[in-house]
Amino acid sequence: MWKFILFALLFSPMLVRAQASAIPADQEAAHKVVLKNEFVEVMHVTLAPGQSTMLHTHSHDRVAVNLSESTVSEDVPGKRPPRTMVTSAGSFSVQACAKQGCTHRVHNRGKTTFEALDIELLKRPAGPAASPVAAPAAESRSFRVYRWALAPGDSTQEHTHSRPYLIIAATPMQLLMKAPGGRSMDHLVKAGDFHWIDSKVTHILTNNGKESGLIIEVELQ
């Protein structure tokens, strides 16, 4: 018991100092803000091989969607050793950071560029959360995340988003979007392309190309 108390007394000032020296995520050089509105802030994160971010803090609940196959390590103050991860396009993480903040530094340990979209919830939309449109790949108090892995010719079920959401291409693909009444859009999307929608939408997503693709939808609760 006394050892635990002594550890806590020694550890807490170190953690406070580390967090105090960190900068906000959207001011960190590798985090380029590509969208900011009333509800979300989206940052495109890019790290060349051997590059590291500065120590930075995420102050809002977040979803990080990986866009590349890379090897990275995460250095969190007070935790040793750094955790090494192999990312793949379409993998993602959900983290609750609104209450205490999430402070870390990321290092690219691999030979390929690391890319990701970092989505932070700034404000919850008014009204109650909607029912899930399908089985979520992940869910938190702030987000539902849907992951659609589509082989050539495959389609999602028809589904309706009644809450604001982001649709993200995690990989390149020829994406066909069909709405009730015969309306459709067919276009080539690149990895990292995204679109913010804050109106009710019913659609079917189809891979209209010759290569498999991954679509991530991040819906606000």
In short:
The chain is mostly beta strands and 221 residues long.
Note the topology.
Elements: H1 2-21, E1 23-24, E2 31-36, E3 40-47, E4 56-58, E5 62-66, E6 70-75, E7 83-87, E8 92-95, E9 102-108, E10 114-121, E11 138-139, E12 143-150, E13 159-161, E14 165-169, E15 173-178, E16 184-189, E17 194-197, E18 201-207, E19 213-220
Parallel strand pairs: 1-4
Antiparallel strand pairs: 2-3, 3-10, 4-9, 5-8, 5-10, 6-7, 6-9, 11-12, 12-19, 13-18, 14-17, 14-19, 15-16, 15-18
Search tags:
221 residues; mainly beta; Jelly Rolls; 2 domains; 5-stranded mixed beta sheet; 5-stranded antiparallel beta sheet; 47% strand; globular
Task: Write a structural description.
The chain has 221 residues and is mainly beta. It folds into 2 domains: 20-121, Jelly Rolls (Sandwich), CATH 2.60.120; 138-220, Jelly Rolls (Sandwich), CATH 2.60.120. It contains 1 helix and 19 strands. The chain has one helix spanning 2-21, and strands spanning 23-24, 31-36, 40-47, 56-58, 62-66, 70-75, 83-87, 92-95, 102-108, 114-121, 138-139, 143-150, 159-161, 165-169, 173-178, 184-189, 194-197, 201-207, 213-220. It has a 5-stranded mixed beta sheet with strand order 1-4-9-6-7, with helices on one face. It has a 5-stranded antiparallel beta sheet with strand order 2-3-10-5-8, with no helix packed on it. A 5-stranded antiparallel beta sheet has the order 11-12-19-14-17, with no helix packed on it. A hairpin with a 3-residue loop joins strand 11 (138-139) and strand 12. The chain is globular. The termini are far apart. The model is unreliable at 1-19 (pLDDT under 50).
